[in-house]
Amino acid sequence: MVLTRSPQRRKRGNAGRQSNKIPHRRREKRRHLHDTLRKMILSGECPPGSRLMQNELAAELGTSVNTVREALFEFRYVGLVEKREGLGFFVRELSCDDFIEARELYTLHQGFANPMTSIWR
Q1: What CATH number does the domain containing 78 carry?
Q2: In this structure, is residue 2 part of a structural domain?
Q3: Sign of the CA dihedral with 37 first, then 81, 50, and 62 last
């Protein structure tokens, strides 16, 4: 018995594969942005209490304001930044315990988002 392709089936070519590359690139850019912002905050480049200007960060990092805003909301969730109503995002002053807790929450959050990678290297 010889198996052959049924005549009803069409060959898709590269059309399906090309569309899959765009989200992957976005994901990589987003991950790079998260890593860069996290390093800026934890290294002290953005000192505690400093205001994080979304427009300036977007221009400096070469990304959109919406992508920066998403990252800042995730950092707010894990406790690295705080949002003050009407003023914007500010870097939180972290004690040693706060830092460890924020690291664990961030790692857990990223683990759910992508179980194959680890942000905290």
Answers
A1: 1.10.10.10
A2: no
A3: positive
Residue 27: domain span: 22-113
| List of residues 6+ apart from 6 with CB closer than 8 A | none
pTM over 0.90: no
d(CA 70, CA 98): 22
68, part of any domain: yes
Domain assignment present for 104:
yes
- Across the range 51-70, mean pLDDT stands at 91
Give yes or no for residue 35 having a pLDDT over 80: yes
**What's the start-to-end Cα distance of the chain, in Å?**
54
Number of domains in the chain: 1
Which runs of consecutive H residues, i.e. helices, occur in the chain?
A: 15-43, 54-61, 65-78, 96-113
